[in-house]
Amino acid sequence: MTAVLQVENLKTHFFTRAGVVPAVDGVSFSVNRGEVMGLVGESGSGKTVTGFSIMGMVDKPGRIVGGRILYQGRDLANLREREWQAIRGRHIAMIFQDPMMTLNPVLKISTQMIEAVQAHVHISKQAARERCLATLARVGIPSPAERMDAYPHQFSGGMRQRVAIAIALLHDPEVIVADEPTTALDVTIQAQILAEVQKLAEGSGTALIWITHDLSVVSSLADNIAVMYAGRVVEQGRAATVLRHPAHPYTHGLIESIPSRNKRGVDLAQIPGMTPPLLDLPQGCAFRPRCPNATDACRADQPPREMPTGQMARCIHPMRESEVAQ
């Protein structure tokens, strides 16, 4: 199957007075039509900057310094803003963590959605309105004709996020980048939106990149998972394989720290230490100071290699099956 989007050795650095920050350092993955790619990691791992890089939305002092972002064979890494305007929103869309980053608080939902349609398609205002109504209904907004003339503050958090998702879906884009869009929502609304997004991806064939720190979310949503740490992908493969047989100690630590995995009365498992500052990364494997399997050999840079269970992992001392089963 041909990938809709391929990210090849992407490097996005921030040039600060303190030094160069390698926020994204050689990230590679691909996503096919109708697939969901889960991009997972702690805060500061580089997953959100990866998403912004794909959208051409990295602000100064950051910029893409290497690699390619191939959308249907076209490299987007060095497009000018005018060229991006023809792609962003129509072919590749983004759903932000905070819907208020998408919605203007002083404009009605109808105004914002109709403008989003007419920015890319030359149709009448009435035709644009009909498209907006149909899209709001797709994401489960009740009485869409009435809600279109409301302001963002008149919606609950969950409904605002549904509107943001609807705006991303207006042009049936081939790729959607979702940056933790359900983090601020309660569990019930989160489950509803996850189910709807998955159904929409399957029904329309949209390729979805779901950025999150929550492995429990991607376990029920993603087809493939890429685990990021300190700007790099440390493990990547089919979701079921990575979650059942984690090879990288960092992935294993993330899975073990999920509260639902702990027994009653047993302390919550934690990964010792903290994510290192990107301006002062340790030599070799960035996870080495926190890793229970680390040896002096980990001071050398480790390329990704295929594990017996099928996924790729950047580790010289991968987890053994006996350790994973514990």
Keywords for this entry:
AAA+_ATPase; alpha/beta; ABC_transporter-like_ATP-bd; single chain; Rossmann fold; 326 residues; ATP binding; eight-stranded mixed β-sheet; 31% helix; ABC transporter ATP-binding protein; nucleotide-binding; globular; four-stranded antiparallel β-sheet; 11 helices
Would you give an account of this structure?
It is found in: Cell inner membrane. With 326 residues, this protein is α/β, with parallel strands linked by helices. The chain has two domains: 3-91 and 174-325, 3-Layer(aba) Sandwich (Rossmann fold), CATH 3.40.50.300; 105-170, no CATH class. The protein has eleven helices and twelve strands. The protein has helices spanning 47-54, 81-87, 109-118, 125-138, 144-147, 157-169, 187-204, 215-221, 239-244, 249-256, 321-325; strands at residues 3-16, 19-32, 36-40, 62-71, 74-75, 92-95, 175-179, 207-212, 224-229, 232-238, 305-306, 312-313. The strands form two sheets. An eight-stranded mixed β-sheet has the order 6-7-8-3-9-10-12-11, with helices on both faces. The protein has a four-stranded antiparallel β-sheet with strand order 2-1-4-5. A hairpin with a 2-residue loop joins β4 (62-71) and β5. α3 (109-118) packs across α4 (125-138) and α4 crosses α6.
Unreliable residue runs: none
Largest sheet: 8 strands, mixed
* Superfamily (CATH H level) name of the largest domain: P-loop containing nucleotide triphosphate hydrolases
Supply the CATH class of the largest domain. Answer: Alpha Beta
H and E string: EEEHEEHEHHHHEHEHEEHHEEH
CATH architecture of the largest domain: 3-Layer(aba) Sandwich
Beta-strand content estimate? 15-25%
Number of strands: 12
Neighbour order of strands in the largest sheet: 6-7-8-3-9-10-12-11
How many domain modules? Answer: 2
Number of helices: 11
Bin the helical content: 25-40%
The N- and C-terminal alpha carbons lie at a distance of 37 Å
